[in-house]
Design a protein that fits this description.
Length: 146
């Protein structure tokens, strides 16, 4: 009979990698947020999944706030993930009206989400989160729980 590390009978610990992520670079903060949202959509739907050119689109106003810039990126992606999961809306683009250090507001264009996503993302994490300004623009690292 197998036992877990603490001796519980009948329990076998499993190592499991339940994360996926990406690093992104962009010349501006708003383009970084746009690229991060597009990358998240591609993780969910697959990079080759493209909406039909005649697919209906809808625009929604999205507003998020946080205590600092990295947390703002997480809040942005969490809101888009929520809209994808609950309303089956897939991010396509955003026109940012305001994008400060701790809040943003954008008119976001969505299309219908893929009927067969290639991956389920359960959440956007703070694990390994990075958002930095560099001499030539911005860079970020985001990890998702899958």
């Amino acid at each position: 009979m197998q036992r877990s590390a603490d001796g519980t009978e009948g329990v076998t610990p499993l190592d499991h990698t339940a994360d996926v992520g990406f690093a992104v670079r962009a010349p501006s903060r708003t383009s970084l947020f746009d690229r991060a949202a597009t990358a998240m959509r591609e993780l969910i739907e697959g990079a080759s999944e493209k909406p039909a050119t005649d697919a209906p689109r809808q625009v929604r106003s999205v507003e998020v706030a946080a205590d600092e810039a990295g947390a703002l990126l997480v809040a942005w992606l969490r809101e888009l993930l929520y809209l994808h999961q609950v309303e089956r809306l897939a991010y396509r683009s955003a026109a940012f009206e305001r994008a400060g250090e701790t809040s943003l507001r954008a008119d976001v264009t969505f299309a219908a989400a893929a009927t067969r996503p290639v991956r389920e993302i359960k959440g956007v994490t703070y694990h390994g989160l990075a958002l930095d300004r560099e001499a030539d623009g911005w860079r970020a690292r985001v990890i998702f729980d899958v």
